[in-house]
Write a structure and sequence with these properties.
By secondary structure, the chain is mainly alpha-helical.
């Protein structure tokens, strides 16, 4: 009887690991725009992919921008011990290299749910609580409302806007 219980427990654990792995793969694929296994067709109802060029030309500059009464995102999130870590700028540079931008894209992509603006931490966390954001963000209320132009730019990226 005990041996049977051990076998059942092992099978349950294997199934849990299998399904968790499949879910993680599907989430990663949706964020990079890669098709999930078994995906053969596309439809307009599918989750949008995150566009690197839009990120690089529109979203990434926001992280370096000085906002009134706030530090730049980069000041706190450069190589920091936060969920959101921006790549340190190369010495003497005021913008990221292509390789550094790609790392920033990968990092930021982990904090959004493509197509789901309210469910994306990158948008929710620095937003003022009165506007639907988190109660605390150590960098202050970077975005006072969802009408903020920079907040809207990041939201557009999450919605799948393309191009530069």
């Amino acid at each position: 009887m005990r041996r049977c219980a051990e076998i059942v427990l092992v099978l349950v654990l294997v199934l849990l690991v299998h399904f968790a792995s499949a879910r993680t793969s599907a989430q990663t694929a949706s964020k990079t725009g890669a098709p999930t296994s078994g995906a053969t067709s596309t439809s307009s109802a599918e989750t949008p992919s995150l566009d690197y060029e839009y990120f690089k030309s529109h979203v990434e500059p926001i992280f370096l921008k000085k906002r009134p009464n706030h530090a730049r995102c980069y000041a706190c999130h450069e190589e920091a011990n936060h969920a959101f870590k921006l790549t340190k700028l190369s010495p003497g540079n005021t913008n990221w290299t292509e390789e550094e931008s790609r790392r920033n894209f990968e990092m930021a992509s982990q904090l959004v749910e493509p197509g789901d603006v309210p469910g994306s931490v990158l948008l929710h966390h620095p937003l003022a609580p009165e506007a639907g954001g988190d109660a605390f963000h150590s960098g202050g209320r970077q975005f006072e409302s969802q009408s903020d132009a920079d907040w809207q730019t990041i939201a557009d990226w999450v919605r799948g806007h393309k191009g530069n």
